[in-house]
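Progress note, sequence design subtask.
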């Protein structure tokens, strides 16, 4: 089965068994489809969506090129620039969801923290590869799902039916009786009747597996390694993990066995190979808050690692270097980097020139208007008003937002943003929370009622707060 996967073929790489029915994978999407997909969640910001859609499509195009030219085509990295709360990070989050390309998001500021040293910047590549490996393993395991399922079933049956010493009873009749008993129990098992029955499993199955990896490890890894060493000693003291058993429900045993069997069913070498190819050719790293590492170094007394230092550390990765991971060496030349930052204080030109050159595409995201707020409240598939509606529905309360009310909320948000601080769409969250404060508190006792949120309702609850600037500074 797994042999059918051919690393370089477009179609095969796109196989995503569960997702396939629902959506087409990112590889196959044309720019307009990518934009349409982003439109479901992000309002406005057309330029940014377009640029990103083209960049993503270009990777698919590149994969179709003959080997020789392909090596010469480098991704055009992007910087998204825009005020706070206008959707930069949100766009990244959405790409991650629709993408079958390995994707990770890091905060540039993380690398300026005390305790991080230069080579830790490489951890972004390791994380990317790590996510690709688990993605590929999941896909390969899904192909073997049937076989895994039946192996798990047999193992549980073995536990449920204690093994009778077979040499003692060799007559055919006994064997037949045993087989039919097994089939009966199998039927009960499939019907879910035995889910709560307890069985004994080896306790080593219960522990998360912690590999000891010191090469290129961070402090966290080392800590983990220490812990797992600790537990090895502990186990030895208690007579070794193999001899110990634990009681769990059939349901839990099924989960644990499924995990184990899935892992066993996957050819790890092959998974790593596909993951490496995908990481190198299709990987996307999103570097958020890049503006925070731009600009001149603040006073030398600052405990932070110099920002310019971090830029210099990032540079080789963006330019293309080889990073050692526990799954092999990853070449970063063709990974797509998307950076984002508000650039309030610093400007993109404050980045070191070499790094600027590596991010040739700049897109600006627009500040959001009251109309945008209206749409953000209403349109996205996860719109805030829908979220409140669903939450309160669980209490049996039906909340209806009239358009006038939503308009009023948007106006207020815009107003507060311009009079106090502009925090973009994040303002909507605080305003909605204040608006629905009473309702949220009382909803549990209001089952069966319908509450209409009208313009008057909004004014009643919010206008005093809005008029009083000091108050709104604290509340909204
Ligand atoms: N254009 C938009 N469409 C829909 N929702 C938006 C939009 N802009 C912002 N939001 C919502 O506002 C919140 C904050 O947005 P986001 O995290 O993208 O801000 P940002 O641009 O990354 O700001 P910062 O520079 O502070 O990181 C998110 O929860 C997001 O859902
Ligand atoms: Mg952000």
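Output:
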């Amino acid at each position: 089965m797994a042999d059918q996967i051919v690393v370089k073929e477009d179609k095969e790489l796109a196989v995503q068994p569960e997702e396939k029915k629902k959506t087409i994978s990112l590889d196959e999407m044309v720019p307009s489809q990518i934009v349409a997909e982003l439109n479901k969640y992000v309002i406005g910001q057309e330029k940014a969506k377009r640029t990103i859609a083209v960049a993503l499509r270009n990777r698919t195009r590149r994969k179709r090129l003959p080997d020789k030219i392909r090596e010469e085509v480098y991704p055009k990295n992007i910087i998204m620039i825009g005020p706070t709360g206008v959707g930069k990070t949100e766009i990244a989050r959405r790409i991650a969801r629709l993408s079958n390309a390995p994707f990770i998001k890091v905060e540039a500021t993380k690398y300026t923290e005390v305790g991080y040293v230069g080579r830790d910047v490489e951890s972004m590549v390791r994380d990317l590869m790590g996510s690709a490996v688990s993605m590929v393993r999941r896909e390969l395991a899904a192909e073997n799902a049937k076989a895994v399922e039946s192996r798990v079933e047999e193992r549980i049956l073995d536990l449920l039916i204690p093994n009778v010493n077979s040499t003692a009873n060799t007559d055919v009749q006994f064997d037949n009786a045993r087989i039919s008993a097994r089939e009966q129990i199998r039927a009960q098992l499939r019907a879910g009747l035995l889910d709560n029955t307890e069985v004994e499993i080896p306790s080593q199955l219960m522990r998360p597996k912690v590999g000891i990896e010191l090469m290129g490890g961070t402090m966290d890894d080392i800590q983990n390694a220490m812990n797992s060493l600790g537990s090895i000693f502990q186990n030895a003291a208690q007579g070794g993990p193999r001899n110990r058993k634990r009681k769990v429900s059939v349901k839990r045993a099924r989960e644990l066995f499924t995990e184990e069997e899935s892992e066993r069913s996957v050819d790890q070498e092959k998974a790593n190979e596909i993951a490496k190819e995908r990481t190198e050719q299709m990987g996307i790293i999103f570097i958020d808050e890049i503006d925070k590492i731009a600009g001149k170094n603040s006073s030398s007394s600052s405990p932070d690692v110099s920002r310019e230092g971090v830029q210099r550390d990032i540079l080789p990765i963006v330019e293309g270097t080889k990073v050692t991971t526990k799954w092999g060496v990853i070449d970063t030349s063709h990974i797509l980097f998307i950076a984002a930052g508000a650039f309030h204080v610093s400007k993109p030109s404050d980045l070191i020139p070499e790094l600027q050159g590596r991010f040739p595409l700049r897109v600006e995201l627009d500040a959001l208007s009251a109309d945008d707020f209206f749409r953000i409240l209403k349109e996205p598939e996860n719109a805030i008003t829908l979220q409140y509606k669903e939450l309160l529905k669980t209490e049996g309360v039906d909340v209806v937002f009239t358009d006038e009310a939503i308009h009023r909320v948007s106006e207020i948000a815009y107003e507060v943003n311009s009079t106090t601080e502009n925090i973009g769409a994040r303002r909507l969250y605080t305003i909605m929370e204040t608006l629905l404060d009473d309702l949220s508190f009382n909803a549990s006792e209001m089952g069966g009622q319908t509450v209409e949120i009208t313009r008057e309702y909004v004014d009643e609850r919010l206008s005093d707060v809005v008029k009083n600037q000091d108050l709104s500074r604290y509340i909204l």
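Residues 123-143 form the longest helix (21 residues). Work on this subtask will continue into the next period as scheduled.
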